[in-house]
Amino acid sequence: MAHMDEPTFDAAALEAETERLFGKLRECGWSRAECALYAPLTLEVRELAARRNAVILAHSYMTPDLQAGIADYTGDSLGLSEIARDTDADTIVFCGVRFMAETAKILSPDKTVLHPAPDAGCSLSESITAEQVRALRERYPDAAFVCYVNTSAAVKAECDVCVTSANALAVVDALEHDRIVFLPDRYMAENIRAHTDKEIIGWDGVCIVHEQFTPERARAWRAAHPDAHMLAHMECTAATVGLADLAGGTGDMVRYVREHPEVQEFMLVTECGLSDRLRMEFPDRRFIGTCALCPHMKRVELRGVLACLRAPRPEQIVELPESVRRRALRSLERMFELTRRGRDASRPLSNTGDRSAQPVPSAP
Ligand code: 13P
Ligand code: SF4
User: Fold this and answer.
1) Is the pTM of this model over 0.85?
2) Given a cut of 90, is residue 339 above it in pLDDT?
């Protein structure tokens, strides 16, 4: 892929960009001086993205400079995968972890998918292999195999249907099977089990971020902030989720904040990027520091995105074996089909993806 010439920006453009960034990032504690340092980088990223006709997608766990500085869309796994499927852009720059960029490639094989941090993995996606799924299939031949989107393309290829945190319950409900093998998140399997009569067989994967939120910590937060609403990700244990006002995915949490203007304080029992996003989107509310950092998500950095757009290294261009991609696509297409059917079902989860367009001005 061609190396792009470095654009230059005049003082007025840099000043305007500094103010734009500061207007958002100050909600997350950034100073104007820090924004001034980042302004040439965000401008260059936007300029190079425009030259490539690229869309920049950022998961809600990305740092504020990525979410408010360069992303065309921020969102959850479901919403961003829908954008990756439907976009007219020639290139998708995915600011998130590897399985998310792979999902974009599965859905849009003719587009160039750039992943700035190829080593940004995920403890869940690394907890199970395609061989292990094949062995489970022999053990449970009558079960439907459902995999969380936090899996490799090879694992998706071995399963019947994929789910995200936004639609897991609706998809499990919609399947005609009474026996479900749910992979690989042990806690999400527990949380699904609590809402269905179906038999849910789990696996031993955990999210290294969400497993840190023990019920003891959640109880202590509740006691310290009795008026705050607690929103917990479905990757937390059932005991922690049981203490929350909402259990869902990141998109469900964004929606909850939007739909409860009367609530002033929130505790987000999830990765810190979401608190930053919500501080920028809802500056009049308070988000109490209950979050934890995902070391994988935080591998994606502004300078890395810029380097990738200037001249991507081969491993930053997502490629998948076509036979794996095609079979993984079946799992994702089944998810979209069942999600569409289940959107009118009244379940604790929204069954709807989160995809917020960011009003990023085009580069000068
Ligand atoms: P969401 O789909 O809820 O955004 O979650 C992705 C994820 O990795 C949570 O840890
Ligand atoms: Fe994976 Fe957990 Fe990080 Fe999400 S927060 S990417 S599930 S390790």
Assistant:
1) yes
2) no
pLDDT tens digits for 121-145? Answer: 999 999 999 999 999 999 999 999 9
Are 11-121+297-316 and 210-293 the same fold in CATH? yes
Spell out the CATH class of 11-121+297-316: alpha beta
CATH number corresponding to 210-293: 3.40.50.10800
The 10 Å Cβ neighbour count of residue 137 is 15
pLDDT score, position 71: 97
Q: In 3D, which of 187, 212, 188 has the Cα closest to residue 349?
A: 188
Of the ligands numbered here, which is closest to the C-alpha atom of 59? 1
Q: Tell the burial category of 318 from Cβ atoms under 10 Å away from its Cβ (0-12, 13-18, 19+).
A: buried
Nearest CA to ligand 1 atom 4: 76
CB-based contact 184:205 (threshold 8 Å): yes
In the predicted structure, residue 44 carries a pLDDT above the cut 70: yes
Q: Which atom of ligand 2 is nearest to the CA of 125?
A: 1
Q: What percent of the chain has pLDDT over 70?
A: 94
What CATH fold (topology level) applies to the domain 125-206+321-341?
Answer: Rossmann fold (3.40.50)
Query: Ligand 1 within 6 A of 76 CB?
Result: yes
Alpha carbon of 209 to ligand 2 centroid (Å): 6
| Ligand 1 contact, 81 CB (< 6 A) | no
Which residue has the least CA distance to atom 6 on ligand 2?
Answer: 122
Token pair recorded at residue 217? 């910590």
**Per-domain residue ranges of the chain:** 11-121+297-316, 125-206+321-341, 210-293
Distance between Cα 96 and ligand 1 center (Å): 10
- pLDDT given at position 358: 72
